[in-house]
Amino acid sequence: MSNPCKNGIVLIGFMGAGKSTVAAELGHSCRLPVIDLDQEIERRSGRTIPEIFEHSGEEAFRQSETEALRGLLDQAPLILATGGGVTGRAENWPLLRRLGRVVYLRVSWETVLLRIGSGQGRPLARDRVRLQALFEQRLPLYEEADLVIDGEGGTPASIARDILRKLYWEKA
Ligand SMILES: Nc1ncnc2c1ncn2[C@@H]1O[C@H](COP(=O)(O)OP(=O)(O)OP(=O)(O)O)[C@@H](O)[C@H]1O
Ligand SMILES: O=C(O)C1=C[C@@H](O)[C@@H](O)[C@H](O)C1
Ligand SMILES: [Mg+2]
């Protein structure tokens, strides 16, 4: 039993899982900086994510993602909403764990489709067949999180409360 915010909270999960929305809710309860990794990458590079993908390719984007995580270490603990692909690089995991407790927002494929709409601003969401393959491929990676939370059974506020309740009851 302890302050659920104390170690920071890092949200992982697929596109549309609600990471950015729930992170903002957590920010109302935890007196910690709230950071969105996608926005941090855009801020550091001065380019949008679609521009990075288009001009430099996915590998360059992944490198920027790892560098952005490293750049946040001196601000830990924090509330961090990650991008859906951050779990793909093994070297990102120890960085995520230094930034906070890693919480997976688990949602179904049907919810992803409903929530991402046209997929605008998400370069990997343009081809729905490849997107579904990516979703299935990533599921076992997300399950490596410290905590798994149902990301579709409630409002963003109730999901944030669920996270805080479960972290509160974790062993110190
Ligand atoms: N619990 C919820 N119930 C209903 N809608 C939600 C919920 N959480 C988020 N949404 C909506 O789903 C959409 C996607 O949410 P959000 O942008 O927070 O996802 P994300 O995980 O950050 O996605 P990405 O990885 O693409 O950044 C938004 O329109 C948001 O308002
Ligand atoms: O799931 C992914 O690989 C991505 C998700 C977005 O949040 C962005 O990080 C980017 O579009 C890649
Ligand atoms: Mg987001």
TrEMBL record:
Gene3D superfamilies: P-loop containing nucleotide triphosphate hydrolases (3.40.50.300). GO terms for biological process: amino acid biosynthetic process; aromatic amino acid family biosynthetic process; chorismate biosynthetic process. It catalyses: shikimate + ATP = 3-phosphoshikimate + ADP + H(+). Its main location: cytoplasm. ATP binds at G16, A17, G18, K19, S20, T21, R122. Keywords: Amino-acid biosynthesis, Aromatic amino acid biosynthesis, ATP-binding, Cytoplasm, Kinase, Magnesium, Metal-binding, Nucleotide-binding, Transferase. Mg(2+) binds at S20. Belongs to the shikimate kinase family. Catalyzes the specific phosphorylation of the 3-hydroxyl group of shikimic acid using ATP as a cosubstrate. Monomer. This is Shikimate kinase.
